[in-house]
Amino acid sequence: MGKVIQILGRTVKRSLNKKALIYVIFILVSSLIIFYLNQSFPYDMNRTDLRVWEAVYAGDFLSLGILWIVGLPFLIYLSFLLSKSISDEINSGTALLVLTRPVKRKEFVLSKFLGLVVFLNIINAIILFVFPALANFMGVPAIFLPTLFKTSLALLLYSLVLSLALAAIGIFLSANLRKSTISLSSLFILIFVSFFFPLLSNLVTTLPKIPIVKPFYSVMGFFNIPLLPGSVSIVNVFTNSYYTTSKAIIGNFSPLLVIILSCILVPIILIWITRRLFSRQDIT
Amino acid sequence: MVNAIQIDSITKIFKTRSGGKKVLDNLSFAVREGRIVGFIGPNGAGKTTTIKIILDLVKLTSGNVSIFGSDHSDGNIRERMGYMPEKDVFYDDMYPFEFLVYFGTLSGMSKEAARQSATNLIKVLGLESAQDTKVKDFSSGMKKKISFAQSIIHNPKILILDEPTANLDPLAQERLLAIIKELQRRGTTILVSSHNIEELEKIIDDVVVINKGKLILGTSLENLKEASNPGIEVNVNDAPNAMKVLSNYKINPVDRNTFVVDAPPTEKNNIIKALMSSNIQINSIASKKHNLWDIVLEILKQNG
After folding, report:
1. In this predicted complex, what is the ipTM?
2. Could you report the per-residue pLDDT of B217-268, keeping only the tens digit for each?
3. The whole model's pTM is what?
4. For every residue of A133-181, which 3-state class applies, written as one string?
5. In chain A, which residues touch B (CB < 8 A)?
6. The domain containing residue B74 runs over which residues?
7. A221 falls within a domain
8. Both B275 and B197 in a single domain?
9. pLDDT tens, position by position, A152-168
10. Is A103 helix (H, G, I), strand (E, B) or coil?
11. pLDDT at B128 over 90
């Protein structure tokens, strides 16, 4: 376990570089701009207004978080990090040095996976908890700060679940594909398809009317993902399709259980497969 | 006595688009405990692949490798092994001390012991002035030193060095070879792969030569030199006459006054007697010494 923590610490430390700082600044600045463009400030705040405005702030921050802070830019940044997480260590030879020590390959894979999850959530924690403070500095009344911080916590949990699922996929690709460009392209395809898939699924009702699409209708229908607020994310697409399939096979499932199964169990399985495949690889 | 490294009939076939490429073909040799073994072969002979198989970085197609009697894939055995790769490998963001401590602790040392060992090695290798420089900004010679340092920081029982003296100035080479000898005195078994055979000759006890993935030779340096017979070089005033006198030997002329008699060193006195009894003036006579380079070159030529 000590070695896992050491490699994990090294992965986090190595990732905390200038690029990470630029990313954090970019997300904070752009988030503040988006937040302000989307806001109208409360002027007459009585007891009822307060609750309304609280809900407005929390709702806006939540949407901003899901779509932007833990949304597409995060997924792109995450893809860049994940695509080269293991392949870069193999290609540069550092994996070779580490694996000549008494470090098992499964420990190496696990520590890279956990290292990236920890790193991504450290920077998201910084963004999500600095954001309310900055918003307050820019004029959001202090009375709403507890609500914003609670929303930050919810977004951080969402980020954790999302990064667990994606990091497992990224590590799997990076460990098995030596060229990080191929891993990156695969992750990009996955993310973009997942991100925009709910929009496509909305067309499901109109698609059968087009003759050429008819044969594919059943395939589209299988996923049956409705366009809902908040469904614009890989986790929702992932869990929705999983939920629909599971429901069809086993019956009614608790949505929470489905999310736990999807985002905890699936990474465990993926990391286990990665570990097995990586153990058989030649590190040249 | 158990060998430090025992390689039994290993074969490695790398998968390629056209099927497979056999890099090692039924290779067997042993490295005895406490010896320094020179691992020699031309480019593409399979040296680095063999080393990576010993370290379990590359998987075997068939055969067995054992380290002190244990299977080489046993992760714990690597606590007792050190490896210096041919290519210098570093993390871009690390300083030398940090780099050494990281690999020391990964090898099972306590943080305190790793720090102490790193401080000593930085001093011994003359890297004190570069402590505040990131390893990526080191000169190639300094990188080689730090790469060597990481391989010995945990005081391994087996040390595997791949081209350790490349890019080092003569003084640094001498210092490194002295450290290798010192490690041997402390009981470390060392396998050195190098193209710098002249340097190798100064430190090695045994030689393993491979070519095209097959073992060509595995013996002690002493035996090898004894077995190779370069002959006796003779310089006289009257070479044609001298060659007639020594006609019962196989003779290879070198120039107008010099020729080489194909005979073991023990024949030197008989040759002197024969030439003196025929009144031929001998300017010089000496058993020709082969260096390791000549011997290896000869062996490789014989084996295609």
Report:
1. 0.81
2. 888 888 877 777 678 888 998 888 888 888 888 888 888 888 888 887 788 8
3. 0.79
4. HHHHHCCCCHHHHHHHHHHHHHHHHHHHHHHHHHHHHHHHHHHHCCCHH
5. 3, 6-7, 10, 13-14, 17, 92-94, 96-104, 280-284
6. 5-225
7. no
8. no
9. 888 888 888 888 888 89
10. coil
11. no
Alpha-carbon gap, residue A62 to B127, rounded angstroms:
53
**Which CATH number belongs to the domain containing residue B252 in this structure?**
3.30.70
Residue B295 is assigned to a structural domain of this protein: no
Q: Of B58, B76, B87, which is closest to A102 when you measure between CB atoms?
A: B76
Secondary structure element (H or E) that encloses residue B261, with its range: strand B258-261
Give A13→chain B minimum CA distance, Å: 9
Predicted confidence (pLDDT) per residue in B133-187, tens digit: 998 898 888 899 999 999 999 999 999 999 888 878 888 888 899 999 999 999 9
Of B56, B79, B105, the CB nearest to A6: B105
- Residue A65 within a domain: yes
Instruction: Give pLDDT, residue A252.
Output: 60
Is the CB of A100 less than 8 angstroms away from the CB of B57? Answer: yes
CA distance A94 to chain B (A): 6
Q: Are residues B103 and B236 in the same domain?
A: no
Percent of chain B predicted with pLDDT > 90: 45
Strand order in the sheet with B282-287: B251-253, B258-261, B232-236, B282-287
A97 CB neighbours in chain B (<8 A) are: 83, 85, 89, 103, 150
Task: Give mean pLDDT, residues A109-127.
Answer: 94
How close are the terminal C-alpha atoms of chain A, in Å?
A: 26
Sign of torsion, CA B277 B278 B280 B286?
A: negative
CB-nearest partner of A96 from B57, B59, B102: B57
CATH number at residue B212: 3.40.50.300
